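Hi W., the copper (II) ion complex you wanted:
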Amino acid sequence: MKTFLKAVVIAILFGVLLAACGASEPASDRTYTEAETLAAFEKGACGSCHAIPGVPNALGVIAPDLANARTLAEEHLNSSAYSGSAKDAEAYIREAILDPNVFIAPKCPTGACTPNVMPATLKDVLTSDEVNAIVKYLHSLPEGEFGGTGAVAAPQEPTFGADIVLDPADLPAPLERREPQTIRVDLEAIEVEGQLADGTTFTHWTFNGTVPGPFIRVRVGDTIEVHMKNSGTSAMNHSVDFHAVTGPGGGAAVTQTMPGEETVFTAKALNVGLFVYHCATPMVAHHISNGMYGLILVEPEEGLAPVDREFYVMQGDIYTTGAFGEHGKQTTDITKLLNEDPEYVVFNGAVGALTEQKPLRANVGETVRIFFGVGGPNLTSSFHVIGEIFDRVYDQASLTSAPLTDVQTTLVPPGGATMVEFKLEVPGNYILVDHALSRLQRGLAGYLIVEGDENPEIFNGTIQPGSGH
Ligand code: HEC
Ligand SMILES: [Cu+2]
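Structure:
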């Protein structure tokens, strides 16, 4: 609830910046297929805030239920709070989409409506044909009781999308010793149809096209100059909240960014540690679940102790319309999201990301360090590497406390991180897991493949085929 309130506060802040538009679109005679209309609702992400009967996934609970859009429109047209120019319900609905600032409905499901949560950018996102399709649909809904939303069966054909997996070895090298500097951080929110699993794609929302977003590395005392861009192809507004930042919303209060625009802020890294960053645009859980998270490391003045290899891994839970393993294009199921009942749980954004696709690789005799974070939005990880023991765990990613030593499994909450280090003595295939092992069946596994000479003094035996190791 706290996050939600924060999100609303942020929405208020950014709404102040939005200009009103006004002009209403002429009605068109074109008729729309049901699929086109549903696609328009999806493009506008209406369902992440509104419940809309007949629209799959439109089960949002923070905005008025549009089941009775026509009745709501007729009531609200006559309200003294209304400053628009619509004369009938159809025009009102169109205006609510194109110029929402002229009116605030008195009641949202979670209480009084908050101004400027309804995005003012839909007029840029949707074509006038799409708006017309939506208006016609909402205006034509029959009055009265709606028994649930008639979810449309997801297509079962396999789909193929972009590779959004960030390689766990893709992170900047340790910093040289130096005086504090201003470091420019470029983030771009990019919405992509990414490969989630074999034959299954998902509308990933990303920072810089990957999950997790880029690993950012600074030292304490540095000032970060964050350029938060939102791609012109985005349907949604996006933003960034750095847990390493001291200031309103960790930056989210000043980075609510419309498609095609850029916001900038600076902040001083006061605290050493490994911190999560994530999108904080309502519904925040939806943006995080779709992949908008990453880590920022604030090194101590003297740096971290040297190791042979560093890796960057993040865990996330995903709530698709279709069941786990179902082929086809998936979007987020808001009911499953709110019930914290994920279909997929993954490392670095996809099933197989760190097994078949981009496993961690190292050699016998080396020391490895894993920067591990949980984007979530909901599941806490019991992080464990099968066949290894963490020599050091920087619990809660506190790098200024002494590490725990000789740990089997460590807890990492959503919006939290840990840094673990261990030495590799024996070659083999070590498996990164969340020891809540049901999640293995939902996609959560990674390999650390260690090559080198056998070390029979430490481990001696013959690996059995089919053991999974
Ligand atoms: C980020 C959340 C959000 C999204 C996305 C969103 N809305 Fe809204 N919408 C709201 C909120 C909150 C209100 C009520 C406050 C207001 O009137 O400004 C609202 C109000 C409305 C109203 C007026 C309802 C009334 O009671 O008078 C209509 C119609 C509407 N939205 C349609 C849409 C459509 C269609 C889409 C997608 C194209 C959409 N909204 C996308 C949050 C959202
Ligand atoms: Cu976002």
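The CA atoms of residues 147 and 172 lie 53 Å apart.

W.
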